[in-house]
Sequence to fold (527 residues):
Amino acid sequence: MKKQELIPHLFRTEYRKIVSVLCRRFGFDQMETAEDITSDTFLEAAQTWSFNGVPSNPAAWLYNVAKNKAKNHLQRNNIFESKVSPEVKINHSEFQELDIDLSPQNINDSQLQMMFAICHPAISPEAQIGLSLRILCGFGIDEIAEAFLTNKETINKRLFRAKEKIRNEKLKIELPNPAEIDERLENVLTTIYLLFSEGYYSVSQNQTLRKDLCFEAMRLCNMLIENNSTNKPPVNALLSLMCFHASRFEARLGKNGEHILYDDQDVSLWNADLISKGAYFLKCATTGNVLSKYHIEASIAYWSTQKTDTKEKWENVLQLYNRLLQVAYSPIAALNRTFALSKANGKAEAIVEAEKLKLTDNQFYFTLLGELYTGIDHDKAKSNFKTALSIARTPTDKQVIQKKLDQLQQ
Amino acid sequence: MDEFILIFRHEDGTKVASPEQIEVWMKQTMDWIGGIAAQNKFSSGTGLPFDDARVVWHNNVVTNGPFGEIKETIGGYIIVKADSVEEAVGFAQGCPVLMGEGNSVEVRKIARRDGVH
Fold:
């Protein structure tokens, strides 16, 4: 790896580890200190390495420097505390222990605990994603801002408010106790899935960044699987779901970032390795008797890896959507269910059901109606596509709808 | 928004259907419930299998049931969200159970635990 690529690469892989360990050591309320020390470490690396060359083990070098900086910080704190308030020192006897443990085991534990701390229900979902990207994935503020299509100030403010919340609520970096773990895990999985969706459905044109978001979400999910206390069926189901979706990454985006619809995708671009990984984790998810929404969604995603239109496929997909909507309603699931209904039971029935949904502020609702009326009622198909076009927000979406309108005219 | 329970009443629960027929009914029922859920109007519900069904009577008498003196049985129920009883009746009218002659769906409002109802 070239030197100019090495530091950004290390930043992506090592920042989160160091920050988690330091943060856990200092306490959640001192997250900024942990971040400052870690950033300082990378700054020092950039300066030193350009003069002295890259050390033989760059990660170990970073750990060492971070360790020393952290020790200095604790030392200063200790001196302050022993001079200013000697009594306090007795209560803070752990502060005497200055060693910073950057062993692989402690790095892993710290990151896992950090995940639960960040995904605490007291923190807003938006801030959870921001903090996850910053602390758990080592994303720069610029990158986070780009992923959210906003500016650095907004992201900084959002992160600042989240950290304030952490201090006020006195949140701790620890794994929840076994009785609480399933409930808290749900929150963690929601954030991971949001993170993934942010990348998968993002309006950002930066494809590398979008893929990174998805793979980071998968990495976090994998960390939960590698730990015995968090390796639960819904976690496996979520990873399976993400693998199936990610398998179509290369096929769903055109050269200019335009969206290629499922029907038009080149199947040879689907990633067979990710599809078989998805199948593997889906199998792992079927232990126990929990049927989470991720199980149902992963099963739907499995059928999406079968391109051929068969009666069996659409009947299965329809029934899965019927179940999914009973446990977790969402407008997009309602629309997809109606599409599956048209494939399984015919367009006439699907049109009646679609008209009942009344999702009139949703462009995809009108795209679906346009689709269903195509070949049945030309005027209604056209007027629905036109309504969809008028409320579509992104150029990519408009492009897709315009293409459908053009096909209709032919 | 209120909640209504739709109770499926079968005129004669002892009638035996073929597995193929049961499969068709299952699909129709799942599609019907899915349609309600797609409107975000589904709350909960379940089928009530006839295995292990008992009727407990006055004077501590327990019979295998619900068959015997009464033929009519309850096959299941769902609870839906609806703005009015008319809307709930609209949902009930789509229930596949009604394809059987003599069958009915009873629509009842769920009491709100707000001290008024």
Summary: Chain B touches chain A at residues 27, 30-31, 33-35, 37-40, 42 (CB under 8 Å). DSSP finds two helices and six strands in chain B.
